[in-house]
C-alpha cells in the first residue's frame, strides 16, 4: 500500500484539474474560527449526522462541532437569499452581484475531505455562496456524492477500486473518505436536504447517462430553486437534455472551456432558457463575450480556478474581467474577493 505522504502527493497532482478531478487541500480553504470577522457567515447552526438530514432540529453546536452540518434549515438566516436561491440574482444577468463557489467544499487533508459533509459545512461557515459537489448513481439507482469510479485510493482506502455503479447505496455510504476516520460517502438526497436554505449547489454529474436520474432527484426533493447541473458540453445541452423528463424545470451550467464559438450555439441556436450560465477556462478573456453575447441573452459567465494559490487579487481580477461567478480551491480568498468587488459596486450585503 502506498504511504500517506505518497497518497497526499497524488492529491496535490490533481490540483490543476476541474470537474473531472478532485481538488487538493489548501490552507486558505479551511474555515476560520467562529469569532473571525467573516461577512455573510450564518448566525446559527444545528447539529447533523450523515443520513439524518430529515430529522427534527437540534441545538446549535459548539465550535468544535462545526464540521458536522446542521440538519434543519427552517430558521436559516440565508433562506430566500442569493446564497440559497437561484431566483435571487443567479438567473438574472442584469444583477451586478458577483458570487463565489467552493469546489468540493472548504476541505483539507484531515477530517474535512473533498466532497464531505464537513467540507460542505465549512464552506457554508466561511460565507461562500455555493458549493460544487460530484454525483454518480449506484446500481440500485440512488444518486450519491462520489467523484471517481472506480474509487481511487486517495478517496477511500476501504473502498479502493470499487465501482459506484456496481455498488448499492447502502454499500457506498459505508465507505470512509480518506483520510478521515468518521466521514463517509453521502447520498445526494441527504446533502440537498442539508443545503436547502443555505447554499446554491452545483452538481457535477460525472456521467451523461446519469443526468436523467439527477434531474428526477432534484425534482423529487423540490430542489429546483437551489441545485443546478453542470453539463460537460454544448452537445449534452443540445442532444441529451431535451430528451429527459423534467429537464425543462432544472437549471444548467454549460462548460465550453476555451471553445468560445460555442457561445453562439448556446445563445443563438439552442436557446434553452434553463442554460443560465456558461463556464470558460480562466485563460479566456471574457469581458466582451459577457457584455455583448451572454448578458443580452440573460446568461451569466463562470470560471473555475483550480490553483492552490489563487490569491484574493487574482480572483478579483476574474470578477473585474467579466466573470459573474468564480469557483475556487482557495474558498476563503474567493469570499474576500467577492466582498471586495461587491463593495466597490455598492452592493449590500457584499
Q: In oligomeric terms, what are we looking at?
A: single chain
Rg: 19 Å
What's the CATH topology label?
Answer: TIM Barrel
Estimated share of beta-strand residues: 5-15%
Whole-number average pLDDT? 83
Main sheet record: 8 strands, parallel, barrel
Helix coverage percent: 25-40%
CATH superfamily, by name, is: Phosphatidylinositol (PI) phosphodiesterase
Category from helices, strands and their pairing: alpha/beta
Number of domain modules = 1
Q: Residue ranges: pLDDT <50 for 5 or more in a row? A: 1-10, 12-16, 20-75
Shape: globular
Care to describe what's here?
- It is a single chain.
- By secondary structure, the chain is an alpha/beta fold.
- It has one domain: Phosphatidylinositol (PI) phosphodiesterase (TIM Barrel), CATH 3.20.20.
- Helices cover 25% and strands 15% of the residues.
- It contains ten helices and ten strands.
- The chain has helices spanning 4-13, 117-126, 169-172, 188-195, 211-220, 234-240, 262-270, 287-294, 312-320, 331-344; strands at residues 99-103, 130-137, 143-145, 186-187, 200-205, 227-231, 251-257, 275-280, 300-305, 325-328.
- Strands 1-2-5-6-7-8-9-10 form an eight-stranded parallel barrel, surrounded by seven helices.
- The longest helix is centred in the C-terminal third of the chain and has 14 residues, at 331-344.
- The radius of gyration is 19 Å and the shape is globular.
- The model is unreliable at 1-10, 12-16 and 20-75 (pLDDT under 50).
